[in-house]
Every structure is written in C-alpha cells, then in structure tokens.
C-alpha cells in the first residue's frame, strides 16, 4: 500500500504559519502557563490595553466633540480590533485544555490515516492542504494590511525629509490625554508612541494569522473525516460475500467515528459560539466604518490604501468561517444521502437496519457551526452584508 501522507504529519508542522504566530504572541495552547509566560502576557496585555485606552480617549475626548467623524470612525475601527484580539486571546486561555484536546484528536486522526487505503489518504491530504491555504490567505491578508500603516508613515516622513521639511508622522492620528498630547512630537515621546502603535500593529497581525485559521482547519478536518465515512458506508454492502458479523463490525466502526465527529462539533460550538456571535456583530459595523473611510478619501481626491486592505480583511474575517461551516453542512448532507443510498434495504439483518435508521435520524440535524442565534453559513454572511450596507447608507446620509 502506497503512503501518500507525510510520516511526520502533525498539526503544528502542517499548519506551521498559524502555530508559529501563536507562539510569537504566546497564545499557543501548548505553551506552559509558568512565571515566564505570565510576565510576557502581562507585558502584552498592558501595551495592548494602553493602545485601547488612547484610542477611546481620542474618540470621546476629541474626535466626536470636535465633529471630526472621519477620524472618530478610523479610531473606532482600531479600538474594535484591539478589543477583538484581546477577546480571542481570552478564548484561547479559557479553553486551553479543550483546544489542546482538539489538536490532539487531529494528530491522532492523521496518525491513523497513515494505515488507510490510498483513496482515503488522498482525502485526508486534500483537506489538510486546504487548511494550509486558509493559513496562507490569512498570512497574506493580515500582513499586507498591517504593513501599510507603518510603511505609509515612513514614506511620508521620508518624502518630507527629501523636501527639506521633515516632520513626524504617526501611524494613527490620535489626541492623547493631558500633557502627553503637548509633547507627542518631541523626539523621545514620538519614538515611544510610534513603537507602541507598531507593537499593537504587529500583535494584532499575529493574533489574526494565528487564531483565525484554527476553527476553519478543524472544520476542514471534519469534512475530510466525513468524506471517508461516506466512502466506507457506500461500500458497506457492496461485497455480497461478507457475513453479517463483518458488516456489523464495519458499521460499528463507522458509527463510533461518527459519534466522535459529532462530539468534535459540539466542542467547537461550546468554545466558539459566543466568539462568532461577537465577530458577526463587530463585522456588521467594521464593514461600513472601513467603507466610509474609503469613500471619504475618494471624495477628497485621495486613495486610502490602508483601509482598502482592511476592508478586504474584514470581509475575510467572517466569510471564511461562514464558507467552511457551509461546506461542513453540505458534507454532512452528502453523508446523509450516502447512508440512505448504501443499499441497506436489501439487507435482512434487523440490527443492522435499525442502526442505519438511527444514523439517518441523527443525520437529519444539520452538521454546522453556529452563533448564539443562527447557523454560520453563507446565508448568514449575506444577511450580515445587507445589514452593513444599510448602516453604510445611514452614515453617508448623516456625515458625508
């Protein structure tokens, strides 16, 4: 039997882009929560919290009061991002053991797959490769978007220097509290504040690259496991020479694996239901806010590259889980049809027939990830886009 899968196939090595990013920001569930980690986490949380505080101060103490709604929208976007990445970090901390178990199950499935037939190994390899593409999508999107902010500031400062009129240009135009605002253009203070925002930029990038591909990878892995069961159950009654005991044994293995898949899905729902509800709600506001930034820049004859990249990243933020959750639902429906079409009606053993009927009954319930109030699917994504467009129209009518 040919072995298509890599002998060293593991979650950490296959999806190294995501796991490496999580190790950089110290959120990887395998990192021991010892004294060194607590010091690192405290430093990260303190710096990120300082950025969030400065953003909120600038929004409410200056931007809104002075009627600068474009700047208020821009800083609100960054404040939502700051809160979102902290919330994601808290999810990884709260469900560390659970996420570790999910990764362990994936590794165990990869190890078992090395003894599968060639066709089943190809299925496992196909869905693992799709998971790698998700990591690559997020790496390109997050890195390209975040890199624009410091690059733009450096380019403007460089252009001013070449023209003999050098001036400091911050990454984010903020109004700082008290005396700090009066000295924000002093060399040392500017470098400190610029370094703080640059850290926030890098930290947010590592959280999006590390965290967001994880659940889609889990969903793709489940799709692969269901496709394998689909293949096996279609062959369950194909060999007329198999005894009743052999059929029951093969069916029992399918049923046990199916129960494990259902449990896997339930764990994902338990861990990430509130997170995806939060992401859906924040995306509903981030899309019109970032679109408003782009349209306002175009009205002023400018091209807002940073928020063009941010706009595409916001779409990706909710589209990817919706797309792969929809794929999981379709895969579950195909499996239900495979159960019904496997030829069970020609089998005389009543225990086997009852088991098949039980599987059919259970398969009626859609296999899908959900938020608190609705399933995560492409229909939900379309509804979110419609709501965002309505908010965008209101913003244009009120502030444009």
From TrEMBL:
One of its GO terms (biological process) is signal transduction. InterPro entries: 7tm6_olfct_rcpt (IPR004117). GO terms for cellular component: plasma membrane. It comes from the Eukaryota. Coiled coil: none annotated. GO terms for molecular function: odorant binding; olfactory receptor activity. It is a multi-pass membrane protein. Keywords: Cell membrane, Membrane, Olfaction, Receptor, Sensory transduction, Transducer, Transmembrane, Transmembrane helix. The chain crosses the membrane at residues 41-60, 188-208. It is found in: Cell membrane. Belongs to the insect chemoreceptor superfamily. Heteromeric odorant receptor channel (TC 1.A.69) family. This is Odorant receptor. It comes from Lobesia botrana.
